[in-house]
Design a protein that fits this description.
heterodimer; A: mainly beta; six-stranded mixed sheet; 12 strands; 0% helix; globular; B: mainly beta; four-stranded antiparallel sheet; 11 strands
Chain lengths: 117, 113
């Protein structure tokens, strides 16, 4: 069975702090895909990043960075110098590549991030 | 214009009423999905469709039905709404490539009194 765990339900930081959101996944597929989405207070779901299991390079996009470690089955998301606009719920998701597992995304329950001024 | 649209955006209805939520997309995707979101429960898949003739139940399909009228349209119906169906409903689409991301509509906030 596939599973995504976001152990941090809520995080509160002060603006300009760095914050890391944890995501741990379980899958038996050798090829799989990991995703992060952002849901700001307005409610829409915004795609942030996709990572293939065979590409372990970390990625940086502005203040956002993602650390993918197959050895620990983790795909963590770091926001550097957080801003109030980063306040949102962040979801991690997984899709396997095998037939059957590739038909849908498996979602974590989300981490609610509050960045206070 | 938005690639994935949902109507209505908000709806208040009474127990026992039939409700239809509609989703349209201009992304040209074959795959469409309906999710519901409840506080603390994340996103749960209700139904998904990989083309007009391929419709599948998700993890919480009881009390819901769907219709894929065309490649671009996927509607969700609550045949007899009940209060615990009060939630935020999302439609999503994706391409056929393995591991491709899903694109979401703005959501429909449904309240069943």
């Amino acid at each position: 069975a596939q599973k995504v765990t976001q152990a941090q339900t809520e995080i509160s930081v002060v603006e300009k702090e760095d914050v890391t959101l944890d995501c741990v996944y379980e899958t038996r597929d050798t090829t799989y895909y990991l995703f992060w989405y952002k849901q700001p207070p307005s409610g829409e779901l915004v795609f942030l990043i996709r990572r293939n299991s065979f590409d372990e390079q970390n990625e940086i996009s502005g203040r956002y960075s993602w650390n993918f470690q197959k050895s620990t089955s983790s795909f963590n998301f770091t926001i550097t110098a957080s801003q109030v606009v980063d306040s949102a719920v962040y979801f991690c998701a997984l899709s396997g590549a095998r037939t059957g597992n590739n038909r849908k995304l498996i979602w974590g329950l989300g981490t609610s991030l509050a960045v206070n001024p | 214009d938005a690639d994935v649209t949902q109507t209505p955006r908000n709806r208040i209805t009474k127990t026992g009423k039939r409700i239809m939520l509609e989703c349209s997309q201009t992304k040209g995707h074959d795959r469409m999905y309906w999710y519901r979101q409840d506080p603390g429960l994340g996103l749960r898949l209700i139904y998904y469709s990989f083309d007009v003739k391929d419709i599948n139940k998700g993890e919480i399909s009881d009390g819901y039905s769907v219709s894929r009228q065309a490649q671009a349209k996927f509607s969700l119906s609550l045949e007899s709404a009940i209060p615990n169906q009060t939630a935020l409903y999302f439609c999503a689409t994706s391409g056929e490539v393995k591991g491709t991301e899903q694109f979401f509509g703005p959501g429909t906030r449904l309240t069943v009194l």
